[in-house]
Structures are given as C-alpha cells and as structure tokens.
Write a structure and sequence with these properties.
single chain; alpha+beta; 5-stranded mixed β-sheet; 5 strands; 26% helix
C-alpha cells in the first residue's frame, strides 16, 4: 500500500473510448476499481509488465483488464480491454 496518497487518473484516447462504451453495470464496477487503484496502484493482484514495475496490468473486474503506468502521483490508463463469452476461441468442453 502506498499510504493515504490518492493518484490522479488519466486515460489515453483509446482507453477512454473503451471506458465510455461500458454499460451502466460495467461502468459502476470499473469506476469502483479505478477508485481503489487511485489509492493503491500496486495491489497484490496487479502484475508488472515492465522491468521497472511502474507499468502494470490488472484484471479489474471479471471481464475488464486494465494496463496502466504509475508515475509522479499519476496513473495513466493506456488499455481498457473488455471480454465476454463471445471472445472465447476454444471452449473447455
């Protein structure tokens, strides 16, 4: 945990477009997840995707993956990927 500091959240254009396409239920869960990340951008469930560990990925909800960068009190959300059952190439049958 990073303490009581709250990070400012910014979105790339691509991430903002994906965020804005979320339905109301997904958006509520997404916003809650963003609020939690703003307080602690290094939760145990997140994984580093760069050598420095400042670029990270997390499965924010059951269907929403987020990639972000932490720098100077800011979170830059650069990927918001939404998955659903139609995205499955091979099912486990």
């Amino acid at each position: 945990m990073t303490g009581s500091r709250t990070y400012q959240i910014y979105f790339t254009e691509q991430a903002a477009v994906a965020r804005d396409r979320l339905d109301e239920r997904q958006r509520n869960a997404f916003d809650k997840g963003m609020s939690l990340l703003a307080r602690d951008p290094f939760p145990a469930l997140s994984r580093p995707i760069s050598a420095t560990g400042d670029d990270r990925t997390i499965l924010l909800t059951q269907n929403i993956l987020v990639e972000y960068s932490v720098s100077m009190g800011r979170l830059l959300i650069f990927i918001v990927e939404v998955f659903n059952n139609k995205d499955v190439f091979v099912t486990e049958e």
